[in-house]
Amino acid sequence: MTRPFDGTEQTAAAIVILVTGAIGVFINLFVILGVTKAQHFGAAFGKICISQSIANCGNAFVFSCLVAPISLINPDFHSTYWGARCGQVLIIFWNGSIFSHLLTALNRFSVIYFPTKYARLFDKRNTSIAVTMIWVIAIGQASAYFDYRCTFQFETSSMTFTFVKTACGTVVGTFLDFYLSLMVIGTVSVVDLLTLLGIRLMNKKGTATDEAEKSRRRKREIRFFFQAFAQAIIFVTELVLYFYLSTFPENKWSRFAMTTFAWIFMQTLDASVVLLFNKEIRSLKWRSVVVSALSSSNQYS
Predict the structure, then answer these.
(1) Tens digits of residue pLDDT in 68-101
(2) What angle do CA 177, 143, 105 make, to 5 degrees?
(3) Residue 124 confidence (pLDDT)
(4) Which residues pair with 155 in a beta bridge?
(5) Which residues of 55-76 are buried (b: 16+ CB within 10 A; e: fewer)?
(6) Percent of the chain with pLDDT over 90
(7) Residue 123, Cβ neighbours under 10 Å: how many?
(8) pLDDT recorded at residue 100
(9) What is the mean pLDDT of the chain?
(10) pLDDT per residue over 261-278, tens digit each?
(11) Where are the transmembrane segments (predicted)?
(12) pLDDT digits (tens, 9 = 90+) for 224-260
């Protein structure tokens, strides 16, 4: 049986959460503002990337600005009704994240298989509706957690979130969280594999007769796919670590690393992938990103 964290270890773990979460907030904010400035994203893919980064940023914010400070100042507050709202908010951002991944996969699939219809499928109106629906569903799914018997609360003994051990907590945790996440990631995996197959078939046709601009745009869309594909791999890794591998180690720090730390770190890594695949964002300075984002905020409204 795994020994619980003692007071000193809880403090150390809370500091790790605070620092890792703060880094995640900073990087995701930079990506959000950078996407609003970058010209090559386009309205549809840009909105979806922003939705994903908002979810990542929200996760990191809850950990760094709520979970960590409560753990350092008043750990017992986690077991109260209002303290458990941290878990409910995290679930909202988690759902926003997985459904944003799904929308990204569908977006890349449409680019490859329906290039002539893509502009209509993901026009400004349809994309806005889709992104709005992501967050409506995310908030709706988390409404069950208002009942304390169904809550998702942070336990300082393990320094991670767990569902309360009640009938409602078991049902919500199993069906509305675990199975829902598996269903979404399974769909994302299938769609991504089909998209990858489409890219391979498209490349076999060659581009010798393509115009230079058409070839350039195709390479950009392919790069965006591999960006989304890398983010999906990160998402799958997070699920495997949290729900499967974390159940095996007896060492409490190993479990902490595979659950709480992995949750925060993977959200940060997700944003880092956007930076890796987009030189235009990497080359931006923080001050210029903020100024430009404020001056062009109407672009994605």
Answers:
(1) 999 999 999 999 999 999 999 999 999 999 999 9
(2) 50
(3) 92
(4) 160
(5) bbbbbbbbbbebbbebbeeebe
(6) 50
(7) 12
(8) 94
(9) 85
(10) 999 998 889 888 888 887
(11) 12-33, 54-72, 92-114, 126-146, 178-203, 224-244, 256-277
(12) 788 888 888 888 888 888 888 888 878 899 999 999 9
DSSP bridge pairs for 162: 153
The pLDDT of residue 300: 44
Q: Which two tokens stand for residue 266?
A: 């993977």
Count CB-CB contacts under 10 A for residue 270: 27
Q: What is the 3-state secondary structure (H, E, C) of the chain?
A: CCCCCCHHHHHHHHHHHHHHHHHHHHHHHHHHHHHHHCCCCCHHHHHHHHHHHHHHHHHHHHHHHHHHHHHHHCHHHHHCCCCCHHHHHHHHHHHHHHHHHHHHHHHHHHHHHCCCCHHHHCCHHHHHHHHHHHHHHHHHHHHHHHCHHHCEEEECCCCEEEECCCHHHHHHHHHHHHHHHHHHHHHHHHHHHHHHHHHHHHHHCCCCCCCHHHHHHHHHHHHHHHHHHHHHHHHHHHHHHHHCHHHCCCCHHHHHHHHHHHHHHHHHHHHHHHHHHCHHHHCCCHHHHHHHHHHCHHHHC
- Amino acid code (one letter) for 221: E
The token pair at 199 is 């890219």
CA distance 97 to 90: 10
